[in-house]
Amino acid sequence: MITFHAPQKGPTFLQDEVGGVEIVPPANATNLFVGAGVTLQGYTEPSGLSPRIVVEELRITGTNSLPIPKPGHAGAMMVGQSDGSYIFAEGINRRAKPVGTNMLIRLNRYGPVFPVLLHEGAGLSPADYVDAQVRIEGVSQARFNRQGHVIGSRVLVSSSRQIPLESECARSPT
Predict the structure, then answer these.
(1) Which of 80, 130, 140, 159 is the most buried (most CB within 10 A)?
(2) In terms of Cα–Cα distance, which of 27, 24, 6, 23 is closest to 14?
(3) End-to-end CA distance of the chain
(4) What is the chain's percent helix, strand, coil content, to nearest 5?
């Protein structure tokens, strides 16, 4: 099942009962969406920590609910062990800012701060998310420096429905 898809802008990930992996869909796969069940044929190529699948043939088999996310453990995420997995993380959002049509969120998880990239986050109010308690569901993606060393992780989120506000932010009296 597709767990993250950013057409023409970024990676696509799928998840099965074993784990998650990045795929490179064929150029004519314009009907992909998060929650699509798929069967595919392709080959693997090196990419970051784990190989990705270059898809030669892809067929959508239906629509499914997203899988139950696994807890995103900070240690595993920071060294890339959760790479490609559909995870959840809870914490306080410390920053939200629009970046093109996306929104970049900084989630404080009682220590490490994780960047969260909300695809197509335009139109959301960053002020609604700053200092709010949130639970984020998305795909963990390792981040690398120029030498190819893992320097951390970010969470890729396709929809604001995957970032429900668990408590409103504290507003200053005006």
Answers:
(1) 140
(2) 23
(3) 47
(4) 5, 50, 45
pLDDT more than 70, % of the chain:
89
132 neighbors 116 (Cβ within 8 angstroms): no
Q: Which two tokens stand for residue 14?
A: 């799928």
Mean pLDDT, to the nearest integer, of 123-148? 82
Residue 23: its H or E element: strand 20-24
Which pair of tokens denotes residue 50?
A: 């784990």
Q: What are phi and psi of 148, to 5 degrees?
A: 85, 10
CB 35 within 8 A of CB 62: no
Phi/psi region, residue 16 (left: phi>0; alpha: psi -120 to 50; beta: rest), is beta
Strands (E), 112-149: 113-118, 133-144
Strands 150-157 and 52-63: what pairing? unpaired
95 token code pair: 């920053």
How do residues 33-42 score in pLDDT, each as one tens digit? 999 999 999 9
Token couple for 15: 């998840």
**Angle at Cα 140 formed by Cα 97 and Cα 10, nearest 5°?**
65
- The pLDDT score that the predictor gives to residue 172 is 46
SS3 90: strand
The whole-model pTM stands at 0.84
